[in-house]
Design goal:
The protein is mainly alpha-helical. About 75% of the residues lie in helices and about 0% in strands.
Length: about 500
């Protein structure tokens, strides 16, 4: 490849490569959220909308707990590919990508089987309100059992996207995601409500139909992703022999990925703990919590996009021995992230009621109460939006440097210092009820952002996790490719 210096990650303007990387990530994540939004909209129009939407509220944290174990290791693949690419090691970048793909696939199969077998036991641990236990938990079980069958396909796209991002290509995953979201949106109403086609009639499957639509769509995404990785010259050069797991590569992936897996797992445990607290309330509060979190995940996208772009910018610049440029990229991204998220907060505050009202049919008393609680939740959480932007960028910088233990520490601070204890104290000790939950949820990212920025200023994160003089690096290209790391389409 011979990209211009202007569009290079390691040379020239910082602004252009940062946004060239970030906007497709934002769109990809927007499309990712569209899976959940489509499910929520259609399930919110079933006969019992609060129960159906509440089922997703209870199912997601438990799903996320198991998926996070494997998902953390995709960070290792992205970091290794970014740093080898920045150093000019095309051969090693391909090997790192292949080893990550093989390792995560093995994990995905095992985790999917484990999730399917333990669904009812995990749901049984929630201290649910009687109405929630009767109407919501059985639906959550139906959704989860179908979802876990598609775990390998879910991971297939995640690892594909991470490897392409480390290489500097964020547009191809965006295009793949677009195709599969269209498919999911088309399948959702057919599988949820059924479709009378005579002898080929599709039965109404409710929440199971929503999970099946996601499974089919993820299968298509993974198939396309594998074709891109092995059949096109659009990403790291993976060859079939790279899929044979080697102990030294697995150790490297585990060393970098384990803290990220732990970070995501502890995040999932925090979500489950919070969900257990929420489940002690009635279905409207449970549904409002789930609906609000889905809306927050949508708001989260600009920050996530900038954070993941920062991961690549820092990784490739440190690989190219440009620590000063890596730091400048972090500062630029943090400023933009805070500004963009502040603007999003103003919009969400002003239009909270019509935004929440789109997702729930208020024909029943429970549904109307769900909307009321959801509006209050969204408005309270706008106070943290600018801090989300800063925190995600700084965590992306730590991950890009391979300093995943530091990222873990500040994620734990945000969740287990700033969020979980305050939710418990405000909701139950101070007896604020649902409002206490909403306020406590908003404090976590504020605490995490303040701590992460303070530590960042020490400058101790500016080290690589690859040795550019290692025999495994493609020495023929290392000298002249480091300053021309591409931002590709």
């Amino acid at each position: 490849m011979s990209p211009s210096t202007e569009s290079s990650i390691t040379e020239g303007s910082l602004t252009r490569p940062l946004f060239t990387l970030a906007w497709p990530i934002v769109v990809t994540q927007l499309l990712q959220v569209a899976y959940n939004i489509a499910d929520t909209i259609w399930l919110g129009r079933t006969a019992e909308p609060a129960a159906a939407v509440g089922a997703l509220s209870l199912a997601f944290p438990i799903i996320f707990l198991l998926l996070s174990v494997g998902g953390g290791f995709t960070v290792a693949g992205s970091t290794l590919v970014a740093q080898f690419t920045g150093a000019g090691g095309e051969e090693s970048a391909g090997k790192a990508a292949g080893q990550t793909l093989a390792f995560v696939t093995v994990l995905a199969v095992g985790l999917g089987a484990l999730g399917w077998l333990t669904t009812d036991a995990l749901l049984g641990l929630l201290p649910a309100d009687p109405d929630t236990a009767r109407t919501v938990i059985p639906l959550a079980s139906e959704y989860m059992k179908v979802f876990f069958l598609g775990t390998p396909f879910l991971f297939g796209f995640f690892v594909f996207s991470a490897l392409m991002r480390g290489y500097g290509n964020t547009r191809t995953p965006m295009r793949v995601m677009f195709v599969t979201v269209v498919l999911n949106v088309a399948l959702d109403p057919v599988l949820i409500f059924g479709w009378d086609l005579g002898p080929l009639a599709v039965p109404a499957m409710g929440v199971e139909g929503a999970a099946l639509a996601t499974l089919v769509s993820r299968f298509v995404a993974t198939a396309i992703g594998l074709y891109v990785l092995f059949g096109l010259a659009a990403g790291p050069d993976i060859r079939p022999e790279h899929l044979r797991l080697e102990l030294d590569w697995v150790k490297r992936i585990v060393d970098i990925g384990a803290p990220s897996a732990l970070e995501q797992s502890t995040s999932a445990l925090a979500m489950i703990t919070l969900t257990a607290m929420v489940a002690t309330f009635g279905p409207p509060v449970v549904a409002a919590y789930g609906l609000g979190n889905r809306l927050i995940s949508l708001v989260f996208l600009p920050a996530m996009g900038l954070g993941r772009a920062t991961n690549t910018m820092v990784g490739q610049n440190l690989g190219a021995d440009r620590a000063d440029r890596a730091e400048q990229a972090v500062k630029l991204a943090a400023g933009v992230g805070a500004g963009v998220m502040f603007c999003v907060a103003i919009v969400a505050l002003a239009f909270a009621e019509p935004i929440v009202g789109v997702f729930i049919n208020t024909a029943t008393a429970d549904a109307a109460e769900t909307v009321r609680q959801g509006v209050r939740y969204l408005r309270i959480r706008t106070v943290e939006f600018a801090f989300i932007g800063v925190l995600q960028v700084v965590l992306g910088a730590y991950r890009g440097a391979g300093n995943t233990k530091t990222a873990l520490a500040f994620s734990l601070m945000a969740l287990w210092v700033g969020r979980v204890p305050t939710v418990y104290v405000l909701a139950f000790v101070a007896a604020l009820g649902p409002t206490g939950i909403w306020i406590g949820m908003a404090l976590g990212n504020i605490v995490g952002a303040v701590g992460a920025v303070a530590w960042f200023t020490r400058g101790t994160w500016k080290e690589t996790v690859v040795d550019t003089g290692d025999d495994s690096t493609d020495a023929d290209t290392a000298d002249d490719a480091g300053d021309q790391s591409p931002v590709t389409e």
